[in-house]
Design goal:
By secondary structure, the protein is of the alpha/beta class. It has one domain: Maf protein (Alpha-Beta Complex), CATH 3.90.950.10. 38% of the residues lie in helices and 20% in strands. Strands 2-1-3-4-5 form a five-stranded mixed sheet. It is globular, with a radius of gyration of 16 Å. The mean pLDDT is 93.
């Protein structure tokens, strides 16, 4: 079984590798693809669209059985800032089955809101203000904020597990038109 991941980010690739063990042995193929959305997606629709685009493009590029796309975005939430950061995972297969999953979400640091509202990517802001290079390819912002108790890989892992539910329980999730 071939599973293409729409990213070469080692955090995302390893999260997919770990989650896919629930289904079985697979060759995990990282594929660099464009999300087709902004660097800092805002809203569930744009975040979902980015993950879906990555999943479809990766599966096609690698001629894989499955494609997995993962996108982090800011979504409206009943928090003091009005926002939460969430990972969205989308899994597509060659038969047209689509699964969607979400990670636990967290409120972005309030001192970053002005820059986020201008469209700057949270990862870029974090790297600059926290003096951490490639933060999204290691612990992620959440790893820094929780002092390593929760990492980006864990958030991504849970989102991917949620997205593969339709593959595990196909009788409950018939293919949509």
């Amino acid at each position: 079984m071939k599973v293409a991941v729409g990213s070469t980010n080692p955090v995302k690739v390893e999260a997919v590798r770990r989650a896919w063990r629930l289904i079985g042995d697979a060759e995990i193929i990282p594929v660099e693809v464009e999300s087709g959305v902004s660097r800092q997606p805002r809203g569930m629709e744009e975040t979902y669209r980015g993950a879906l685009n990555r999943a479809v493009k990766a599966r096609e590029a690698a001629a894989a059985d499955y494609g997995v796309g993962i996108e982090a975005g800011l979504v409206e939430a009943p928090t003091p800032t009005g926002w939460a950061d969430v990972q969205v995972a989308v899994v597509v297969d060659s038969r047209g089955v689509v699964g969607v999953g979400f990670s636990p979400a967290f409120e972005p640091p309030r001192v970053w809101l002005e820059r986020l509202s201008r469209g700057e990517a949270m990862g870029d802001i974090a790297e600059e203000t926290l003096s951490r290079s490639s933060i999204g390819r290691v612990l992620g912002v959440i790893g820094y904020l929780t002092r390593g108790m929760v990492t980006r890989q864990e958030l991504t892992y849970y989102a991917v597990i949620m997205a593969i539910i339709p593959l595990l329980e196909e009788s409950l999730y018939p293919r949509l038109g």
